[in-house]
Every structure is written in structure tokens, then in C-alpha cells.
């Protein structure tokens, strides 16, 4: 909770700087987008392209995590809060949700690991600490090192919801990292490591596992057969202004969807 409050204070400070800069350079429309660190680079790409045809609209895009984004839009700090997980029952009151696409969560292991597939039940046992050696799931003899994300991460919340369920926690000695890239680096450097990362940021320096015999891909995420996926949400308090709605409509239109597709954010096919 303390870290979350620090993140919010930092974001408020950065937003004040942005607003001051807008006042200095002249009159224009300013929108603050705050939230998920997974959505942040995608939002930045969308904003960069939108400004080419809408030069009078300014944006300030910040991360901080999905929970920070939800809190910020509720409190009026952000015009758009971003989340990479479904909202909980007590979080959605008064908010309009726009699902801009789905993204997969990939189970990543070191390239030297001989394991290629795990079931959701095996993943639950590994991340909870019930299974602690790779030889218990068909791999080499070696203690499993679990890499996870920080509290407030939408990727973490989505992973826990899909794989662990409400009554199971990630093992207490798991190594906590603050971004997908940090998780990838930890897995790359440790032959016995396992973590979960964003599909959009997967690369060949780590190995993606199939889950229940289904490989993560654009096709399997789109048709829902790959179950480890979550929404990318834009959240607005109440009804958006015309200028804000114009931007959201552009995101969901042809130009915005082209950028999302390039960033491996996927429209469901069903």
C-alpha cells in the first residue's frame, strides 16, 4: 500500500509538470493517461500517431500499475485510467470501460530448460510452491526458481485469477520484479527460473511454454483457445468529453487497430 501511494504521488507530480508545460506553450486540450505498465507503451504509440492529425491535443502518459490507473481515474487525477486486468466488483462503479483488445500472458523459462508444456494445474503447483523441482514435471533435476511481478501489476492479478484462483497464493520466496523486461532478464540468466510475461514483449532470449498443449499465438489468443490472456482497458469516469471520445473512437477505428495489431494486442474473433 505504501509503494502504491508513493507511485500515485509521483504521478501527480509529473502530471502537474505536464499541465504547467501546456499552460506555458499555449492553449490546447490536455489528457492524462495513467495506469498499467503493460498498456503504457501501447498508449504511447497510439498517442504519437494520433497527434500527427490532432496537433492541438496534448497527452501525458504515465505508468504505475493497473491499480494506480483505476484509483487515479476514480479520483480525477487521470482522464483515462488503463488496466491490464478485469476490474473487481468494487472498482467499476461510475466508470465507463473500453476494451481495446486482448493480450496473452506467456509462461517463460530459460532456453536451456527441456520442458515444453505445462498444464494449468502444474503451473498452480509450481507457483504456489507445492512443486519445487523441475523433475516433478518432466524436466531436469533442479530447484525451481519462481519469478513474479509486484503487487498492483495487472499482469500479476490476471495470472493469479486465471491460474491460482482466489484461495492460493504465490510462494513467499518468489523473486519479485517490477516489469516484463525484468522478469525476462531473470529467466534468461537462470536455467531453473520460470516467470510470466506479456505476449507482446516475448523474444527469443527466453522460451515460451505451451499451456495444456496450446501454444500462445495471435490465432489462439484471438479464438480463446489459449486461456492465459487479459483485456487492455481504457477507463473513463462517467461520460467522456467529445475530444476524449474522439480519441477513444480513433483507437477503436481502423488506424488505431492497425497500431494495436502491430503491438500484438488482439481483437477477439468470437
Q: Care to describe what's here?
A:
The protein is α/β, with parallel strands linked by helices and about 270 residues long. The chain has helices at about 1-25, 40-55, 65-75, 120-130, 155-165, 180-190, 220, 240-250, 255-260; strands spanning about 30-35, 55-65, 80-85, 95-110, 115-120, 145-150, 175, 195-200, 205-210, 210, 230-235. Strands 1, 2, 3, 4, 6, 7, 8, 9 and 11 form a nine-stranded mixed sheet that branches. The chain has a two-stranded parallel sheet with strand order 5-10. The radius of gyration is 19 Å and the shape is elongated.
Please give the structural blueprint.
Blueprint: H1 2-25, E1 29-35, H2 40-53, E2 57-64, H3 66-74, E3 80-83, E4 95-109, E5 117-118, H4 120-128, E6 145-149, H5 154-164, E7 175-177, H6 180-188, E8 193-198, E9 207-208, E10 210-211, H7 218-222, E11 229-237, H8 242-252, H9 254-262
Secondary structure category: alpha/beta
Counting structural domains, the number is: 2
- Low-confidence parts lasting 5 or more residues at pLDDT below 50? 21-27
What percentage of the residues does DSSP assign to strands (E)?
15-25%
Number of strands: 11
Structural key phrases:
D-Maltodextrin-Binding Protein, domain 2; 11 strands; alpha/beta; nine-stranded mixed sheet; two-stranded parallel ribbon; 23% strand; 2 domains; single chain; 9 helices; 270 residues
Amino acid at each position: 500500500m505504501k509503494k502504491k501511494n508513493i507511485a500515485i504521488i509521483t504521478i501527480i507530480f509529473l502530471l502537474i509538470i505536464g499541465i504547467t508545460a501546456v499552460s506555458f506553450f499555449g492553449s490546447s486540450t490536455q489528457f492524462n493517461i495513467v495506469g498499467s505498465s503493460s498498456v503504457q507503451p501501447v498508449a504511447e504509440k497510439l498517442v504519437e500517431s494520433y497527434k500527427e492529425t490532432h496537433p492541438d491535443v496534448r497527452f501525458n502518459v504515465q505508468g504505475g500499475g493497473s491499480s494506480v490507473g483505476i484509483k487515479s481515474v476514480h479520483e480525477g487525477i487521470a482522464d483515462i485510467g488503463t488496466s491490464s486486468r478485469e476490474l473487481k466488483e468494487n472498482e467499476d462503479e461510475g466508470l465507463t470501460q473500453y476494451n481495446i483488445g486482448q493480450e496473452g500472458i506467456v509462461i517463460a523459462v530459460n532456453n536451456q530448460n527441456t520442458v515444453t508444456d505445462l498444464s494449468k494445474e502444474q503451473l498452480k503447483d509450481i507457483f504456489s510452491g507445492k512443486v519445487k523441482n523441475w523433475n516433478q514435471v518432466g524436466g531436469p533435476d533442479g530447484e525451481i526458481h519462481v519469478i513474479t511481478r509486484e503487487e498492483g501489476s495487472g499482469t500479476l492479478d490476471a495470472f493469479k485469477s486465471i491460474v491460482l484462483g482466489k484461495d492460493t497464493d504465490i510462494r513467499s520466496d518468489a523473486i519479485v520484479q517490477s516489469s516484463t523486461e525484468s522478469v525476462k532478464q531473470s529467466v534468461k540468466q537462470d536455467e531453473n527460473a520460470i516467470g510470466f510475461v506479456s505476449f507482446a514483449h516475448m523474444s527469443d532470449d527466453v522460451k515460451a511454454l505451451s499451456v495444456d498443449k496450446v501454444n500462445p499465438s495471435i490465432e489462439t489468443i484471438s479464438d480463446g483457445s489459449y486461456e492465459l490472456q487479459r483485456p487492455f482497458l481504457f477507463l473513463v469516469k462517467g461520460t467522456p468529453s467529445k475530444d476524449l471520445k474522439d480519441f477513444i473512437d480513433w483507437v477503436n477505428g481502423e488506424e488505431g487497430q492497425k497500431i494495436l495489431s502491430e503491438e500484438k494486442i488482439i481483437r477477439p474473433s468470437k
